[in-house]
From TrEMBL:
Species annotation: Pseudomonas xionganensis
Catalysed conversion reaction: 1,2-dihydro-beta-NAD + O2 + H(+) = H2O2 + NAD(+); 1,2-dihydro-beta-NADP + O2 + H(+) = H2O2 + NADP(+); 1,6-dihydro-beta-NADP + O2 + H(+) = H2O2 + NADP(+); 1,6-dihydro-beta-NAD + O2 + H(+) = H2O2 + NAD(+)
SUPFAM superfamilies: FAD/NAD(P)-binding domain (SSF51905)
Record keywords: FAD, Flavoprotein, NAD, NADP, Nucleotide-binding, Oxidoreductase
HAMAP family: Bact_renalase (MF_02074)
Binding annotation for FAD: A15, D34, K35, R42, Q58, Y59, I130, D304, V311
Name of the molecule in the record: Renalase
Pfam family, one: NAD_binding_8
Length: 330
């Protein structure tokens, strides 16, 4: 049975779009809202003079059968490709080849290609930050930062990081309390582009004992612009917490220095550099909720923080939120 009024979904990351797709496929009308200018959330990519740069999620893996099947469909449609980087580990300043052989997937030609394809022609309000979710006599309404009201909606799915979801779930105190209990760690991301390729076979590296946690040769991913040698560096959660309010130029300088120190080859001044702070990069601990739901109220929440903290967890959480909503409608 189709709802008379559309279902509102706040957030167009992988969780929100997973839920939107499932509901749309079941014949329901949805409306999406996102505070950013485009879809993707932490899977978004940034366009630059050096090509598209994946500043958030670097890749993803697929373990759950349901997600494996959908990733195979994405691959058939050209939305994703397998990434087989030359991987290393760095520990105590020593580099060693990584024996890790798990299959890694990336969006093609950039990570945000996946969410753009999932969004398709679904109705969406970008640059629209929802600040309040409230219920009238029978229906839900949303209030945005500009003071505009949106609605009526039959149900609402909140698909934002847990700290942002807490306020939006205030009509359901149990859900708000669960979200409020989820700590999320920040990550500083820095992109560097060099006119001359660095003389290293490294294309990805897991880093310990450093301000850095991870680095990737962005142009080694399928479909990327290879005119410049582009790298993305992720700081560790601890370093990011300690330097949360550092200005971007200082962040670039310090992480560029850490990169030059560990990579084992000459690193010149970059032709292009930029920094981005992910305030809610990943949940500090994993949960097994699947999704949060108050079916009687018609309010739901999903996101990577409801499961594993990974891209797969976000997609599965969106599916779970849609499933619970659909079950209540039957």
């Amino acid at each position: 049975m189709s709802t008379v009024h559309p279902i509102a979904i706040i957030g167009t990351g992988i969780a929100g779009l997973s839920a939107a797709q499932a509901l749309h496929n079941a014949g329901h009308s949805v409306q999406l809202f996102d505070k950013s200018r485009g879809s993707g959330g932490r899977m978004s990519s940034k366009r630059s003079d050096a090509g598209a740069l994946d500043l958030g999620a670097q890749y993803f893996t697929a373990r759950d059968r349901r997600f494996v099947e959908v990733v195979q469909q994405w691959q058939a449609r050209g939305w994703v490709a397998e990434w087989t980087p030359s991987l290393y580990n760095s520990r105590n300043g020593q580099l060693s080849a990584s024996p890790d052989e798990q299959v890694r997937w990336v969006g093609a030609p950039r990570m945000s290609a996946i969410t753009r394809a999932l969004l398709g022609a679904l109705p969406v309000h970008f640059s629209c930050r929802i600040t309040e979710v409230f219920r009238g006599e029978q229906h839900w309404h949303l209030l945005d930062a500009e003071g505009n009201s949106h609605g009526p909606f039959s149900h609402v799915i909140v698909a934002t990081p847990a700290p942002q979801a807490t306020a939006l779930l205030s009509s359901a105190p149990k859900l708000a309390s669960a979200a409020a209990g989820v700590a999320m760690d920040p990550t500083w991301a820095v992109a560097l582009a060099f006119n001359t390729p660095l003389e290293t076979p490294m294309e990805g590296c897991f880093v310990q004992d450093s301000p850095l946690d991870w680095l990737a040769r962005n142009r080694s991913k399928p479909g990327r612009d290879t005119a410049m040698d582009t790298w993305v560096l992720h700081a560790s959660s601890n370093w990011s917490k300690q330097h949360l309010d550092l200005d971007k130029e200082a962040v670039i300088e310090q992480l560029h220095g850490a990169f030059a120190e560990m990579i084992g080859c000459a690193v010149p001044a970059p032709a292009l550099s930029l920094a981005h702070r992910w305030l809610y990069a990943r949940p500090a601990t994993a949960h097994q909720w699947g999704a949060l739901a108050d079916a009687d109220l018609g309010l739901y929440a999903c996101g990577d923080w409801c499961l594993s903290g990974r891209v797969e967890g976000a997609w599965l959480s969106g599916q779970e939120a849609a499933k619970r909503l659909l079950e209540h409608l039957q």
